[in-house]
Amino acid sequence: MGRKSVALPTGVELVGQSVRIRFMWNGRRRCETLAFPPTPQGIQAAAGLRTQVVQLAKLGMLSDEKYAELFPTSTYTAAKAMPTFGEYAQDWLNTRIIAENTRIAYKRLLNRYWMPHLATLRLDEIRPPLLRKIMANTKWSSQWDHKFAIVRLRSVFKMAIGDELLTSNPASLLEVPKVDKREIDPFTADERDRIIDHLYETLHGRTAIWASFFKFAFFTGARPGELLALSWGDVDFNRRSVRIQRTLANGKVKQWTKTRTARDVLLADEAMEALEEAKALTSLRSEFVFVGKNTDHLQGTEATRKILKRALKRLGIRDRRQYDFRHTYATICLTVGMKPAFIAQQLGHSVQMLLDNYAKWANSDDDWGELAKLKSSRIGTKLVQPISNPEVSA
Predict the structure, then answer these.
(1) What pTM did the predictor assign?
(2) What pLDDT score does 266 carry?
(3) Which stretch of DSSP H or E encloses residue 336?
(4) Which of 15, 158, 228, 316 is the most buried (most CB within 10 A)?
């Protein structure tokens, strides 16, 4: 016998062996299939649930959370649980343990190249063909931007996989262009000395602090932001060392370095002289070592950059960055034969990174002399032979 037809309440319908309800919410029609049997009791339960939903919607009380509670298996609920790329990328950025300047660089790449196209899309709506189309229509400002915009995008999706929001990375097959490594361009020892002498000749009074600043930078290899955040509490005159544990970024002192690791830097005589000079100029009026006339705020790297640029122009020395002081320290240390492990410790590098960056300066004029040390493995004109086993000889 067939099933007896049943008059269905408003908004309730039978679909196969399931019961479905229809209703309006936020100006759009919704339909949800329920786990009720297509019996009079199931239909009555469905009608009661629909009445409750309609009433909640009319009172403005049907929130996303309430919807998920009433319809836990709803495809709409699942879609709402999936964040948009814009929301998730912001969470990704907020959870990175990185220096402030690095965070700004990441944010710029995301905002410039991906947000205009992906911000409002759910993560699971972003597929490889869409990303390839975006890339094909993008005018990259540089090869560096091209490469690292893709690298950052991959990182966002990688975290989404770890959070079990996605099962695959839609950016994994995007081709990453090769970027030529920036050529290291240090000052020579002669240029270094000329710059320092010029600054001491031309800067007087409280502005003389910047002569000491640049001298200290040349003879420690510390990053500009690290020096501008250096406090007198970081200085140990007895041990002839300073502790580098903060950096200045966007006018604010951050309680970490670029590598998030504090390091102790031993000071050469020239660096100690610079600190003694700075002590007389700033120790009584500021907690920071290198500050200008106005101690209400720290001097930023842009101000020190202007001082350097003016000095280089007057001396007829090719323009370089303040960061090249760090390269100058590293290359001169290698050239005079200091141990790479010591230099790496001073700079806060690994030995491998030091050699990767400065390999050509690790070579010296005495390389052939080093090769000649192989002679020590010979006795006269005969190769050193291993001692033979007496038992075997017998």
Answers:
(1) 0.60
(2) 93
(3) none
(4) 228
Fold for domain 189-335? hpI Integrase; Chain A (1.10.443)
Q: Identify any residues that bridge with 253 across adjacent strands, giving them in sequence order.
A: 248
Q: How far is CA 215 from the centre of its chain?
A: 29
Alpha carbon 223 to its chain centroid, in Å, reads 17
* Sign, CA torsion 332/336/339/340: positive
**Cα–Cα–Cα angle for 197, 201, 207, nearest 5°?**
110
| 223 vs 289: CA distance, rounded Å | 15
Q: How far apart are CA 248 and CA 151, in angstroms?
A: 26
Burial 379-391 (b: 16+ CB within 10 A, else e): eeeeeeeeeeeee
- Using an 8 Å Cβ cutoff, are 316 and 309 in contact? no
CATH 1.10.443.10 in the chain is located at 189-335
Fold of 85-162: DNA polymerase; domain 1 (1.10.150)
Condensed to tens digits (0 to 9), the pLDDT of residues 67-110 reads 888 888 787 765 566 889 999 999 999 988 777 778 889 999 99
Burial class (CB in 10 A: 0-12, 13-18, 19+), 224: buried
The residue with tokens 């004109």 is 381
pLDDT band at 372 (very low <50, low <70, confident <90, very high): low
Cα gap 14→33, rounded to integer Å: 9
Domain with CATH 1.10.150 in the chain: 85-162
Cβ-in-10-Å burial (0-12, 13-18, 19+) of 328 comes to: buried
Could you tell me whether strands 378-379 and 382-383 are parallel, antiparallel, or unpaired per DSSP bridges?
A: antiparallel
The answer to whether the beta carbons of residues 332 and 189 sit under 8 Å apart is yes
Integer CA distances (angstroms), 47 to 7, 61, 75, 180, 241, in order: 12, 19, 21, 67, 79
Do 18 and 34 contact (CB within 8 A), yes or no? yes
46, 39, 87, 80: which is closest to 63 by C-alpha? 80
